[in-house]
């Protein structure tokens, strides 16, 4: 619970002030009458004199009341960000200084609301996090300086979500080192529970307290200033707030990872409600580096109690299965988790009936996520104790048939083809091509079911080594399933085509067809990832400077970004509440669409598109050029 009201924080930060950089520049350019001025001390050419002066500054700042302290903290913030490995400030007492400032902000309300001191706890916690992210030596100094208790106070929500973000970042750095983990672990149960709660609620909190406030006056001004550094309006603030909310969630998960990795707090983390939340945490498109929820799930899968709890959660298992058949960067983690569950005899048959229906489509993967022979590892795991597994699947004929299909494809068919001559392979290749053309003709004439039969006949006949031919057959059959409105079958066939492609997930037509199939099933994130990969393929294939982005794909991107927006669930809660109250939602809907338009533009700039977009074009339903 925050100790100061929103109105109090708003009142003190509503005062218009000169930007920090301008003020510092002005101060540096004029004569200074303060012998303890930090900026003057920093310009001292004599190293020993400068170090003594800095040390005295760090000791005096928490004890004095000076409106220019915020400028000093802003400067320290920039130095720590750009020179996090420089030992000078950590050796001169920066950590006790930062800890004391946070404590003062929490305990002295009058001081916090005076001048621009409201910015100070954020800067102080950020400085601690920056100096401890790379060097264990600095982390040890920080712990000895007593930074953990004040950081815990921020994490408890004594101020706002902005300070919670930098507090959990700093605590995560301290927990990641063996030599400082014990000090953090003294707060284990409370810390884990706080991180779990914050990871589950932070998106709603940021939306309700900031992004969802369309009136600029209703927002805390200092939040906007910290987000944008005084540059840009509400649009920029919203974009940065989304990025910060994603980081807050991911840093909470990183902190939990530090405990789970050491087999600590597994039962606490594996509460069923949190596991359900966890499989929805992916950080959005603004998250470029963290595996988010699946990263924590994978760590728990390395521990027996974790595997047991995860196997009991239908939602988590299904989420892992969907991830394993996606083009997400963390696809390999979903596969890893399923294999770990299947290799444990205590969880194997709890997840087998679900997992096999997904993993069977991936048995021909060669490499993924820097790993080689991924398909072989999947095959060995699925066929482990083959007869016993077939017996256990007696009541699920579809799963049983899938396992049998894997046995035939990976063992019996390979054994038969091992002795096949090159001439025989070429004969089969010609015959497969003829049957494929028959399938194409039937598809073009509207005989879709007959086309599926022909493509299946060609696949049965096609040697395993003819990967390119099989890619086309699977992808064409998937298109037929789409035309018949069978998304599950389309996903199976496109996934098999994408597993055969080199590199994996690179066959453009299969990506687009699977994106459509996922859209039919309402799996927006999976559809979005495939669509992004499809457009990347379009861009990379263009040799001219005028890149053609298909209109149908841009339209799909727009739809799925709306559905997967980081704050979509929070916005829905507000919309639902307003609807129940009988309030009109036209204005809000328009605002949401503007938000998404900006997100699309940003994504196009950063993740997909290059300069020189030409007129977008439609895709024909079935092109007679075909494959």
What does this structure look like?
This protein is elongated. It has a two-stranded antiparallel ribbon with strand order 1-2. Helix content is 70%, strand content 1%. The longest helix is centred in the middle third of the chain and has 28 residues, at 234-261. Helix 12 (161-175) packs parallel to helix 16 (234-261), helix 21 (314-324) runs parallel beside helix 23 and helix 27 runs antiparallel to helix 28. It contains 35 helices and 2 strands. By secondary structure, it is mainly alpha-helical. It starts with 5 loop residues before the first helix and ends in a 19-residue tail after the last helix. The chain has helices at residues 6-13, 20-28, 38-42, 47-60, 69-82, 88-91, 94-107, 109-112, 120-132, 136-144, 148-155, 161-175, 178-185, 188-211, 221-228, 234-261, 266-269, 272-278, 292-301, 304-311, 314-324, 331-343, 348-359, 374-382, 386-392, 397-417, 422-444, 448-461, 467-483, 487-500, 508-521, 524-541, 551-564, 568-580, 586-608; strands at 367-368, 371-372.
């Amino acid at each position: 619970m925050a100790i100061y009201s929103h109105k109090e924080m708003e009142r003190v930060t509503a005062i218009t002030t000169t930007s920090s950089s301008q003020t510092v520049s002005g101060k540096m350019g004029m004569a200074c009458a303060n012998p303890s001025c930090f900026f003057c001390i920093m310009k001292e050419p004599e190293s020993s004199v400068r170090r003594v002066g800095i040390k005295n500054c760090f000791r005096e700042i928490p004890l004095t009341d000076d409106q220019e302290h915020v400028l000093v903290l802003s400067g320290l913030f920039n130095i720590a960000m750009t020179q996090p490995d420089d030992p000078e400030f950590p050796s001169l007492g920066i950590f006790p200084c930062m800890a004391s400032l946070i404590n003062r902000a929490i305990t002295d309300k009058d001081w916090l609301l005076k001048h621009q001191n409201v910015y100070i706890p954020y800067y102080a916690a950020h400085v601690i996090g920056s100096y401890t992210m790379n060097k264990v030596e600095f982390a040890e100094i920080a712990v000895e300086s007593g930074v953990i208790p004040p950081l815990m106070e921020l994490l408890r929500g004594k101020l706002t979500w902005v300070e919670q973000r930098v507090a959990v970042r700093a605590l995560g750095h301290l927990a990641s080192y063996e030599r400082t983990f014990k000090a953090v672990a003294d707060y284990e149960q409370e810390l884990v529970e706080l991180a779990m709660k914050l990871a589950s609620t932070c998106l709603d909190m940021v939306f309700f307290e900031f992004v969802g406030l369309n009136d600029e006056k209703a927002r805390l001004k200092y939040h906007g200033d910290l987000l944008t550094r005084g540059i840009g309006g509400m649009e920029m603030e919203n974009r940065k707030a989304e990025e910060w909310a994603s980081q807050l969630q991911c840093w909470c998960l990183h902190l939990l990872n530090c405990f789970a990795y050491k087999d600590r707090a597994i039962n606490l983390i594996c509460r069923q409600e949190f596991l359900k939340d966890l499989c929805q945490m992916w950080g959005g498109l603004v998250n470029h580096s963290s595996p988010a929820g699946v990263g924590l799930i994978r760590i728990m899968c390395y521990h027996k109690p974790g595997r047991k709890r995860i196997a009991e959660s239908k939602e988590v298992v299904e989420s892992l299965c969907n991830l394993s058949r996606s083009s997400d960067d963390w696809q390999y983690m979903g596969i890893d988790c399923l294999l770990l569950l299947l290799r444990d005899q205590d969880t194997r048959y709890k997840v087998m009936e679900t997992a096999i229906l997904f993993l069977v489509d991936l048995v021909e993967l060669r490499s993924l996520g820097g790993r080689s022979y991924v398909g072989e590892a999947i095959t060995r795991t699925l066929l482990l104790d083959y007869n016993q597994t077939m017996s256990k699947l007696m009541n699920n004929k579809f799963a049983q048939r899938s396992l049998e299909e894997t046995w035939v494809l990976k063992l019996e068919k390979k054994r038969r083809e091992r002795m096949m001559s090159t001439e025989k392979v070429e004969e089969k290749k010609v015959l497969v091509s003829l049957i494929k053309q028959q399938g194409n003709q039937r598809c073009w004439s509207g005989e879709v079911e007959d086309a599926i039969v022909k493509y299946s006949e060609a696949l049965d006949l096609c040697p395993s080594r003819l990967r390119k031919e099989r890619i086309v057959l699977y992808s064409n059959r998937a298109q037929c399933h789409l035309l018949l409105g069978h998304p599950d079958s389309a996903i199976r066939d496109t996934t098999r085509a994408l597993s055969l492609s080199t590199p994996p997930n690179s066959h453009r037509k299969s990506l687009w067809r699977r994106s459509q199939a996922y859209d039919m099933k309402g799996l927006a994130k999976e559809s979005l990832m495939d669509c992004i990969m499809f457009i990347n393929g379009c861009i990379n294939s263009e040799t001219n400077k005028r890149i053609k982005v298909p209109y149908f794909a841009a339209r799909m991107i727009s739809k799925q970004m709306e559905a997967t927006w980081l704050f979509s669930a929070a916005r829905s809660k507000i919309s639902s509440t307003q609807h129940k109250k009988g309030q009109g939602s036209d204005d809000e809907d328009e605002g949401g669409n503007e938000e998404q338009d900006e997100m699309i533009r940003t994504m196009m700039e950063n993740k997909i598109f290059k300069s020189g977009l030409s007129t977008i074009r439609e895709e024909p339903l079935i092109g007679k050029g075909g494959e």
